[in-house]
Each structure stands twice: as C-alpha cells, then as structure tokens.
Automatic annotation (TrEMBL):
GO terms for biological process: base-excision repair, AP site formation. It holds the Pfam family HhH-GPD. It catalyses: 2'-deoxyribonucleotide-(2'-deoxyribose 5'-phosphate)-2'-deoxyribonucleotide-DNA = a 3'-end 2'-deoxyribonucleotide-(2,3-dehydro-2,3-deoxyribose 5'-phosphate)-DNA + a 5'-end 5'-phospho-2'-deoxyribonucleoside-DNA + H(+). Residues 1-33 have a biased composition (Low complexity). DNA repair enzyme that has both DNA N-glycosylase activity and AP-lyase activity. The DNA N-glycosylase activity releases various damaged pyrimidines from DNA by cleaving the N-glycosidic bond, leaving an AP (apurinic/apyrimidinic) site. The AP-lyase activity cleaves the phosphodiester bond 3' to the AP site by a beta-elimination, leaving a 3'-terminal unsaturated sugar and a product with a terminal 5'-phosphate. This is Endonuclease III. Binds 1 [4Fe-4S] cluster. The keyword Lipid metabolism does not apply. Its cofactor is [4Fe-4S] cluster. InterPro entries: DNA_glycosylase, Endonuclease-III-like_CS2, Endonuclease3_FeS-loop_motif, Endouclease-III_FeS-bd_BS, HhH-GPD_domain, HhH_base_excis_C, HhH_motif, Nth. The lineage of its organism: Bacteria, Bacillati, Actinomycetota, Actinomycetes, Kitasatosporales. PANTHER family: A/G-SPECIFIC ADENINE GLYCOSYLASE/ENDONUCLEASE III, ENDONUCLEASE III.
C-alpha cells in the first residue's frame, strides 16, 4: 500500500487588527507638540514688553486690591495679607483702623485684643507680634511716620521686600516690583525667569522692564494671575495673551471650558465677566474671549 505524505506549509501568523478606531488610537502614541525654537534674549524682552502692553489693555484699572487711605494702613494691610486673600483683609481692617488709626495707637494695643481683631486674617499670633513690633518701631525710630526708603522699611518687624515694594510703589510713588505668589508663577510661565526665590525673580524682571513700569507691571501681572492664569488650572483657552505665552497648554485650552474658569472680581466666582470696580471712571475692558 502506497503511503501519501502530506506537506504542511507553515503560515505566518499576524496580530489581529484592533476591533475599533478607538482601540487603534489607544495603541498609537500621542502626538507631541512641536518643539519651540530657542528664543534669544532680545526676542524674549520684546515679547515680555508686548505682554505688558497687552495686559495694560485688558486691565486698564489695575490697582492694589487692599483698602487703605494712608501709608500706615497700607503697610498694616499688606502684612495682614500674607497667606490670606485681600478680600478677607479688607473685611478685617475697618474695625482695626477705627481703633488703631496711628502707629502709636497700635503699639499701645493689648496683644489679646489685637489678636481677636485680626483673627479672620489667619496666623493672627504671628501677625500680632509683627504689627506690635513695627508700630513700636515707627513710633520710636521714625516719629510715627512710615519711612519712604526700602532699607528703612525692611528693617521693620514682619516687613520684607515684597511688603516694602507694595508700600513704596503705592503710597510713595517709588517704582518697585512686587513678587508675590501670582507674580512669581506668571514670570516663570512667561519665560522671564527660571528662579524660585522672590528676590532673584525681582532682579531678573527688573532687567527686562524700564523702572517706570515696575509698579503697574506688578499690578497687571497679579490681576492676570488671580483672574485667568491660575495656579492649578490656568484658563489658556480664554487668555488674551495666549499667542505670546510659551506655557500655553498647561491649562484648559478649550475656549468654552476655559471661560468657566475665569474670575474677574476680587472674590468673584467662575464664569463672571471681566469688569472694573464700580467706582472706576475709565472704560470697561472687553471680555477676554472677545479679544
């Protein structure tokens, strides 16, 4: 009997194709954003100054958001503003200033009474110590007047460069860069500095802008940081300076979703439209989404 041998041809096995386009997309690596070209320092300075001009258009009424009527009130309010909101400070200071309108009055306050007055502003024990110390120093060393020099201001208890620059710029008209958390965050996002230390941030930014712009630049950047370029989720899709920002895309880029993240009034809620204070005499700024 003749035996027939059957040859078996091996077939190459191929992987099964994904069952859906969604599955295929899941297997495809996400496309990377195109790398930005290196920027010269001159180009960075031009871009930075254009950002400042654009912010001036968006926030023509930018101003310190602490309520004050004299240098002493501004100094006290700025010390109180550490680790809390300007809104909370403005709710706290009327009663405080009614009882302590001068450094002499505040220096004579009972510490426990002062603690109770400023308790809503948080860290009230440390702040009470600073307020009593700086008030006594103003009384004893400066004749009850707030000095108009940086070196004198930073010698007061609880007063650092940030507080000193706020007072100098807004009570004495002396240009200064106020590096708070908002300003430092945006300066790094804008590519003006890579520093984390506030004094180093101040030094880097001071080299980019003319001295005459320092105070208003600080207000504009802080306004933008509070209202649009938030810490955890910036509203990139509703930002008027997005084309100038090297950090575009860190936050929400969808315009409709981004608009819901906007906060325009101090203490405002998401979705509020951009508008100036009720007593601002100038023109209102256009909504960001329309720019």
């Amino acid at each position: 009997m003749k035996t027939t041998t059957v040859k078996r041809t091996a077939t190459k096995t191929t992987a099964a194709a994904p069952k859906s386009a969604k599955a295929a997309a899941a297997k495809t690596p996400a496309a990377k954003a195109p790398a930005r070209k290196p920027e010269s320092r001159a180009a960075m300075i031009r871009r930075a100054r254009r950002i400042n001009r654009e912010l001036a258009e968006v926030y023509p009424y930018a101003h310190p958001e602490l309520d004050f009527t004299n240098p002493f009130e501004l100094l006290v309010a700025t010390v109180l503003s550490a680790q809390t909101t300007d809104l909370r400070v403005n709710q706290t200071t009327p009663a405080l200033f009614a009882l302590c309108p001068t450094p002499e009055d505040m220096a004579a306050m009972d510490p426990e009474r002062l603690e109770e007055l400023i308790r809503p502003a948080g860290f009230f024990r440390a702040k009470t110590k600073s307020l009593l110390g700086l008030s006594a120093a103003l009384r004893d060393r400066f004749g009850g007047e707030v000095p108009g020099r940086l070196e004198d201001l930073v010698s007061l208890p609880g007063v650092g460069r940030k507080t000193a620059n706020v007072v100098l710029g807004n009570a004495f008209g002396v240009p200064g860069i106020t590096v708070d958390t908002h300003f430092g965050r945006l300066a790094r996002r804008f590519g003006w500095t890579t520093q984390e230390d506030p004094e180093k941030v101040e030094a880097d930014v001071a080299e980019i802008f003319p001295k005459s712009e320092w105070t208003m630049l600080s207000h504009r950047v802080v306004f933008h940081g509070r209202r649009v370029c938030h810490s955890r989720k910036p509203a990139c899709g509703a930002c008027p300076i997005a084309p100038l920002c090297p950090s575009y895309g860190e936050g929400e880029t969808d315009p409709e979703k981004a608009k819901k993240l906007l906060k325009y009034e101090m203490g405002g809620q998401p979705g509020q439209r951009l508008r100036p204070p009720a007593d601002y005499p100038g023109r209102p700024a256009a909504p960001l989404a329309a720019r």
